Sequence to fold (206 residues):
Amino acid sequence: MKPLVTVLYEDAPVGHGFVLHDLVLRMVEDDVNGQIWRLEKEVLGNPRKGVDNVLRDCRQRADLLAGEGWLFALVDGDKLVDHVNRHPTSTRRDLLRDASAQLISDAVAESSDAPDKVRVFLLHPNMEGLLHAIGTCAPGEWPTELAAARDHKDRLCRDIVLKKVALAARLDLRACVRRHQPGLDALVEAIATAWSTARRSPGSSG
Fold:
């Protein structure tokens, strides 16, 4: 089965699997009421160990990675403009530090070998911002793990927290996190739209 969407992440996985992608898929499932095993087969997560690797893939390998589908990326927003500006194009000026998420995504797509297939989404301002949103939406939950993940960048504790949010029965918890992270919310909506559109397409088995 060819992937419908491939999502690039700037982080590297800790151990087996990639928990941030698991959380994204669970949020999509909340929206489409889909079967998680089908989402796992059709929406692939690709951790790239650095934002420069993500941007390089968007520039040079988007057509290969997207195939007939989409190539999305979820990256930290706080320093992304500097990375994008390192690779100017003949038709684009350098982005300003306060450039909107849409302008940044457009700039990355413009430099891509498959501009119509690429979209970039931002965590605000970064992974710590996502953890802060979780702490706001789940006050008093997992205080030790959240503190270690936020204050000491403990990746194992970070993944414990993300996994708990992904597995939580409370849809309102994940909905709250999405409200606090509009870039993550936009990514989830984009995947859900691609998924729903594919289900309605002629010849779809879903």
Notes: The chain has eleven helices and four strands.
